[in-house]
Protein: 2-hydroxy-3-oxopropionate reductase
Amino acid sequence: MSRKIAFIGLGIMGKPMAINLVKAGHHVTGFNLEQSAIDALVAAGGHGAASIADAVKDAEVVITMVPADPHVEQVILAEGGVLESVQAGTLVIDMSSITPQTSQKVAAAAVAKGVRTLDAPVSGGEAGAVEAVLSIMVGGDAADFAEAKPLFDALGTTVVHVGPSGAGQTVKAANQLIVAVNIQVLAEAVVFLENAGVDLAAALDVLGGGLAGSTVLNRKKGNMLNREFAPGFRIDLHHKDMGIVTDAARAVGAALPLGAVVAQLVASARANGDGSLDHSALLRGVERLSGREVK
Amino acid sequence: MSRKIAFIGLGIMGKPMAINLVKAGHHVTGFNLEQSAIDALVAAGGHGAASIADAVKDAEVVITMVPADPHVEQVILAEGGVLESVQAGTLVIDMSSITPQTSQKVAAAAVAKGVRTLDAPVSGGEAGAVEAVLSIMVGGDAADFAEAKPLFDALGTTVVHVGPSGAGQTVKAANQLIVAVNIQVLAEAVVFLENAGVDLAAALDVLGGGLAGSTVLNRKKGNMLNREFAPGFRIDLHHKDMGIVTDAARAVGAALPLGAVVAQLVASARANGDGSLDHSALLRGVERLSGREVK
Amino acid sequence: MSRKIAFIGLGIMGKPMAINLVKAGHHVTGFNLEQSAIDALVAAGGHGAASIADAVKDAEVVITMVPADPHVEQVILAEGGVLESVQAGTLVIDMSSITPQTSQKVAAAAVAKGVRTLDAPVSGGEAGAVEAVLSIMVGGDAADFAEAKPLFDALGTTVVHVGPSGAGQTVKAANQLIVAVNIQVLAEAVVFLENAGVDLAAALDVLGGGLAGSTVLNRKKGNMLNREFAPGFRIDLHHKDMGIVTDAARAVGAALPLGAVVAQLVASARANGDGSLDHSALLRGVERLSGREVK
Amino acid sequence: MSRKIAFIGLGIMGKPMAINLVKAGHHVTGFNLEQSAIDALVAAGGHGAASIADAVKDAEVVITMVPADPHVEQVILAEGGVLESVQAGTLVIDMSSITPQTSQKVAAAAVAKGVRTLDAPVSGGEAGAVEAVLSIMVGGDAADFAEAKPLFDALGTTVVHVGPSGAGQTVKAANQLIVAVNIQVLAEAVVFLENAGVDLAAALDVLGGGLAGSTVLNRKKGNMLNREFAPGFRIDLHHKDMGIVTDAARAVGAALPLGAVVAQLVASARANGDGSLDHSALLRGVERLSGREVK
Structure:
């Protein structure tokens, strides 16, 4: 069933996602601060809008995909934002990665206007967005999730309803916590193995085949073996995410002893100028701590 | 080619390994402090010995599989041990999980008697030993590894030469480091997700499908979801292993910021009486830190 | 020189501070949400006001002393707040303990109205406030500090200008960081010494006399020896403060490896129901981690 | 009462201590591997010996002061060591800083020969040894402590019996734990304050006057303000000590979450080439983590 969708935020992630919705047969009207991204969407069969108000006024579904909490507040809640112009009954799906608290604030503001919301952050990066193989973690009402499911299926391959408003963001935060820690411990192991004179490539092979195996090990061991840290997922972004998970865990009284230490190490990587490298460059921090030359 | 093998240490791991060598056509003479294990080996087609000296006197290859560093020193280096009775030229393979330092000490003592050694710790647990699907990480000379390879292939499916004497133990230590940290961060994520009101089973599904996925998540999420902590791999043993990796990393000047914190948390689990539970019971420690009832 | 002072926030700290200013000869007009505190100030020779506007309209100096960031924003920046009614040229001194960022936000808003500000958080607790022996850490212009110095001298014994706007809050945050860590490591030492069978009182005496000595050891060893945790300074408040220092350090790119771990342990104490105990009760957390009965 | 004392180990600490015993009127016979130190003792009124056996054969009290565990084992337990030549009933006082376990091993071996022991490590450094103002933490029997008290009073000003054999070492270990953590958090505070643009000298003054005050802050703030790290107490030695306290706490089941992190940071300082600097140089590690130039 074709839907009328407004898509706000056509960046590195948003643009290919919007195009994938066009390919799936939907009527997609995009808005972005830079016109070139709108032009690309139009070229792919979508439509452009001159403002958020213009984009959402006839929409059945609004999707927002912007960098961080302040942008979500700006785009949805502020003057000239989605809630000002959208019709009652519309479903607003925020796919940005932000704090659960902001998602819940958006949901509460929407309810007051008779608007429904889902928080639906993704993982999988630019490649996952382009190839429509994202993982999508969705918070909100089950009925709203069911309605949005066909749209999500046009964007990703793992689409899961994980709980009420904010739950999608909570799961995304947990994802970033686990990823950061799994990378950091792999980096600690690499420096330990190298310092001990072990054949690192052979060691990583055998480690990957047992209980120490992980997707991080599979995907990032090449970066570590070759000291090749082109992103990928930038440390600056993981730093933002560690702030989210630390705050969110604090808010619900959950202890994160490893998470707190990793948050410091990610911040340290950034302070050392590695913010634009792939998060596997946490290896460089372990090298610094171990007094090794950092290449 | 059938070899004459002496197998010292027929415990939970050693007995099925010795029997698998018999099945592969080797002449295996076992020694163990308790006679019942020797009887089991004999019943499976092996041979029994009355002492270490008796077991090793005609052996081409000696395999030792005992609990910890002092046992290895006792069985190989002490009076009445392997090196006292073995013939020059024999290959002694220690498959126990001990410190790299002790492996190197054994190797040096052996060289002085014209005896060759490999350190070849395993992962995979009792099930892996019985089913001959262990991972085996081997340190020592490449030629000795090549000679032993057919024996290892009778015991496991992933058999890798990772470097000189002690390197096998180093990789095993790295394995235990990564496993402990991956379990701990999964436990932190579980408590965070539950406290935040997320559907945990759904969340773990989506986490497992992305970059946060790991063998630990796949194999241990059931333990965590059901608070079912029958071992598995006991926290007491992981505590011993964290001591090994902490000491070994200190010896080579490698920083383990996460490893050091996890070592404390594993010790804390043991101090709280959880030593005989599976290592996935690190979850209970996060529950304690978070002020939750521990079931 | 007697000054006309408006004092907003007559709580546990504010009331005795306002009374000390009266004793020093100043004309102090107080406002508080509960009338009883205003009555107490009047009984001590001060004056009462019916609103913030009423209190500040003729003031030369305004002092605010409220619990946390939102209260400062409410009392100074919001509708009906200090900046709405105060005359240009007035000196507004916020003595609350809040984030440096909020202090800087207040300063910027004040400048826009021709109002001068100082941030001047204190340490020393209720007893220090009553006895006028507070330590006061002051951020802002040197000339404004010089003008306010006689007032501060009526409230405390250690009064130091530490830098520009926000610097007072930064130093207060550093103070709370050091205190939390010094308490926590003392607690770790206590459990270690007790578990090892040492005479704890004798040990703390000798430790206090050497390089391990600290004000925390002197003032808190009694709490720890007797497991007597009546506040003092509540863990709930220290938890708030660890949030401030963690965020502030993150904002300026300073690594806090110990600070991050302590923040988790303070949060854990609170999650375990110890929030209303003195911060020396961090000892109870070390007992929990060490599997000991917590009395 | 003049005693006949054998003093083994006349290094940086031992030589001035032996001389102080001479000054107090005792008959002191010294032994050291390098003759020059013996000559210095003789010049000060003491006596020299050609071997440990020679030094201890007529002694009422033997004092040992050597660098680490292996030296204590060598000097007391090994062939040619103290226990081989000393008379039954002699009091052997080991003032080295070693593990409690080795002190207990020495005590057990001595008991078997009818020899009494005390472990009596010191703090206060070379200056404290020269000026006879050491702190001395003593483990062993109360009667033996009472007998030795006059000797200790010739060496230090704070002399405390803290428990049975090994207790002196345990307290010394706790001392080093607290000192390392108090230095590290001061370093974290310094970088935080500097990054935030605070007047550091003023801030440290006000911090020192409140609950954040400590002997570490008083004695080490100059090092930190001036980046002047001439030892003092070398990081290499503190690294050795962190190994002792980590192991000792592990042995008694005491959790050291901060201690474990600090042990890593001390090791990291050493790995970065700062081992011969004063332990206040932990500041350099915080600078590295914070991406700052290390001067």
About this structure: Strands of chain C lie at 4-8, 27-31, 47-48, 61-64, 91-94, 116-119, 122-123, 134-139, 156-163. Chain C touches chain D through 70 residues (CB under 8 Å). Residues 167-195 of chain C form the longest helix (29 residues).
